[in-house]
Amino acid sequence: MLALLLAAAIPQPVAAVRIAFDRKGETAITLSGLADLAAKRPVTADDPVRIASISKLVTAIGVLRLVEQGRLDLDADVSRYLGWKLRNPAFPDRPITLRLLLSHRSSLTDRVDYVLPLDADMRAVLQDPKAWDAAHAPGSWWAYTNFNFPVVAAVMERATGERFDRLMDRLVLKPMQLDACYNWASCKPETAARAVVQYRKNVATKDDNHGGAPACPVTPATDGSCDLSLWRAGANGAVFAPQGGLRISARGLARIGRMFLGNGTLDGVRILRPASVKLMETPLWTFDGKNGDVGGDISVQTPSGGMTCSYGLAVVFQATPVKGCRDDPFGDGKRRFGHSGDAYGLKAGLWIDTASGTGVVYFATDVPDVPGARSAYTATEEKLARGD
Fold first, then answer.
1. What is the dihedral of CA 309, 314, 315, 316, to 10 degrees?
2. Which of 51, 68, 211, 333 gets the most CB atoms within 10 Å of its CB?
3. What's the pLDDT tens digit per position in 326-339?
């Protein structure tokens, strides 16, 4: 009874969507709230939302498709693709690879802004020693760093000559029949018109498109202009926000989960080879008490307060059996993989349980800052994870 009273006392998100699925399709959908407060528009399972860091997992699918084609090598020095040497100034002899970038072991940091204007020179930004961890060599330390992914996008652009958003559309989104885009440039205006507005304390923080497409689909140039013809392959991998800018519906994310449950196939279409799926389902780092960035509650000495304790190629692994880890919002101890999302008041998750052949995707906007009872996730995320 007390638990029910406490749950009822927690403020509700502005919008929440949850979809459970298996390999064949959706098994349950729960919707509540409004996609747009001003328009009083109810949220649906098909409304696109800025899904935050789940974008990283989808970017990795694109990388692995290029690896399968022989156009990228996970273990090559990315300098060979970029056309200039990418190095941590404190460790100039240690090459940085896609495997290190995708798994947050590159030694890059977010001490410099990774949200760059359209006309930014990313190479110049990365020459700032503040962008790097001078205490830990590449490959020796895990630290969650958004800036890894603009570098990944620049590598993809240089390897193909294609704009990142269009490349992801060709490699991943269209083959999976997803009405989605990185930032808004590649989405149809009518898709942008259905955007889920993100809020914090009922104040719009992102994607308040007022029923249309945004005036500028990316972060404008330093003078406020928005000329996408300025794009040059690899010059600024942050333009289309590969780290968090994917706009996709909950229904679209469920299709991505079903692709993993299908061992790389979705509705009979091969997206990834089984070997690539296995790579993404394999941890590359697991916290051992001394090999990762300490955040949150330092008394337990775990990254992110215990929320992230195992990571792979842009994939989070849950229910890590290590002291201090609190990475199981489901509370059942089952091994799952996927990714969480957290930005502009939104919380989201895509979690896959291969043992049972099931998964769940959820998001909520204007999530109250109420801690969960059984994990380092919020109470809202715990509720959505379990479907309570």
1. 30
2. 51
3. 999 999 999 999 99
Q: Which residue has the tokens 């202009």?
A: 225
| 201-229 per-position pLDDT tens digit | 999 999 999 999 999 999 999 999 999 99
Quote the CA–CA distance of 131 and 114 in Å, as a whole number. Answer: 10
DSSP class of residue 303 equals G
Q: In Å, how far from its chain's centre is CA 326? A: 20
* Pairing of β 246-248 and β 285-286: unpaired
Q: Are 125 and 112 in contact (CB under 8 A)?
A: yes
* pLDDT above 70: percentage of residues in the chain: 95
**Backbone phi, psi, residue 115, to 5°:** -90, 95
Buried b vs exposed e over 130-150: b needs ≥16 C-beta within 10 Å?
ebbbeebebbebbbbbbbbbb
Token output for 202: 């009922």
Residue with tokens 């389902």: 281
